[in-house]
Records
---
Amino acid sequence: MRLIDAHCHLDLYPDPAAVLATIEQRGIYTIAVTNAPVVFPACQALVSTSRFVRPALGLHPELAHERERELPRLLALLSQTRYVGEVGLDYVTTEGADRAAQRRVFAAIVQGCALAGGKILTVHSRRAVPDVLAALGDRFPGQVILHWFTGSARQAERAAAQGCYFSVNPAMMTSPNWDRLIATVSRERILTETDGPFVHTHGHPAQPADVVSVTVALAKQWGCSEAEASEQVFISFRRLLGAP
Ligand code: MN
């Protein structure tokens, strides 16, 4: 099986080098997201010789209000990578000023990516799907992966119509929304992720190889074999990357 982990915080494991070694050994295509521009160079260095991992430049929405001053640094680093994340909006906070800071940061990042073109974004949208989709607009010149999507079926349909992909993880499989999301979104739009080490599976922080459990769940939902499900996700990932 060819495995894809479209959203993993490789730099936040206690031993990133060990996780990276497993990724290389198993050939798991991984987008290594980061939460702040200040840690991007270290992540970039960590994966510089990797065949399978691509470093993503991010500014997590939950950090946006305290790290907005790092925004110029992020925009300056944009030319160094095709991958951007973790970025987005998180409206768990009810603090108006924090939400406003998130919107300023995300809008600036989207604008920077739109100017550059061809970027691949992994986007957080908890309780903020309408504003995330509005910020991206209908003609964003790049690719968007909505990571750990928890919006409604209608919001999922709208996001898919805007061209978004959805990366799904082991924690989502136990939620009542899982069946609905997978039933709503066409399988060509689904990718796998772990969001490790934040997501736990079987009592331990999820590692990229744990996307196997997601592939198994997708196969069940799609009514196909696990090999077919993993091939489907691989094809979608290649299409996202613009591979011929
Ligand atoms: Mn994450």
---
Amino acid sequence: MKVAAVVLAAGSGTRFGGDKARAALAGRPLWRWSFDALRAHPRVDLVGLVVPGPAVAEYREEAPQAAFVVAGGQDRTASVRIGLANTPDDCDVVLLHDAARPFPSEATIDRVIDAALRSGAAAPGLPVTDTVKRVAEDGVRTVDRDGLWTVQTPQGFRRELLVLAYESLRGSATDDLAAAEAIGCVPEIVPGNPDNLKITHPADLELARRLAASGPGIRTGLGYDIHRFSSDPDRCLVLGGVRFEGSPGLDGHSDADALMHAVTDALLGAASLGDIGVHFPNTDPRWRNAPSEVFLARAGELLKESGWSVWNIDVALVAERPKVVPRSAEIRANLARILGIPEDRVGLKATTNERLGAIGRGEGIACFAVATIGPCHGG
Ligand code: CTP
Ligand code: MG
């Protein structure tokens, strides 16, 4: 048995106010959530993408795992036709899924495949539980909600039936089941998952953000850095953007702010975005003596662009000298300002190394940091 899935991402997102399929949600663009869910499903053999024409090349680069990436049409029906034409002739079931729904569950996909095999056409749905009213000019009337369901995607079909349905269809269908109904098929509605929501308006993405924050949606990153004291009398010690006049400075390409570097790495690590060396190579003259605030600010931006927000950071500095705690309020305020988070989400402790090892002998300063991040709107 062969199952092909088509993820429809060619819409223009008029009601959302932009290309919602590419909106960032917890480190992944929206389209990738359902693309990954379908690819990970043990019964789905291939997943293709239907995307806006101008974005085909970019999607091909971003999704080498896609069975095909093709340009969509004027409306959803046209995009489905194009997607369907690109599915292999020999597949038994075709699943049509809106990229705008990031959370189809494995069980929902399973139920749709089973029902499509049984009945030729199937969709996940939920029985309407709210009271339903028809609001018209001549008054408001209660609609009998008995038997009313809201319908989600993926919708599943035996391929030959879907081909026939779309060959027979004139104009556009409101959904794919409607095309099958029009040729006399009686589709099956199976239970969907309640969190299989569709992103239509910006507020829907806020809800998706909260759903993504449960379970693996929260991430932690660890950062570490160590710098040797410099023999250059002109270098000033800088920790967390605070200058310690009179203390010997640290050696390094930039301002050698080990604390800021550790926090930057913790953030990049939490979001799997590489490390400080990847983004700011010390061979690049732009970063010579650069204030490390630039690195932290850029890491904050990179996270935001990927759909993450910083929940908290915590820092453990290891130094025999100078005393850091008297300046800790300034350091915390700096980090909070650069990252745009409240100061109470920034922790800072300092300890000596009990004269043990290189740090204990006062040869340098080391710093550990952890960062916790969670999904944010991210634009
Ligand atoms: N879709 C598509 N091709 C189109 C129109 C829509 O592939 N020509 C896809 C969308 O990308 C989306 C799904 O169909 O994943 C459901 O459509 P909808 O939620 O209406 O998205 P948009 O059409 O992008 O939004 P709007 O109607 O607000 O413009
Ligand atoms: Mg639309």
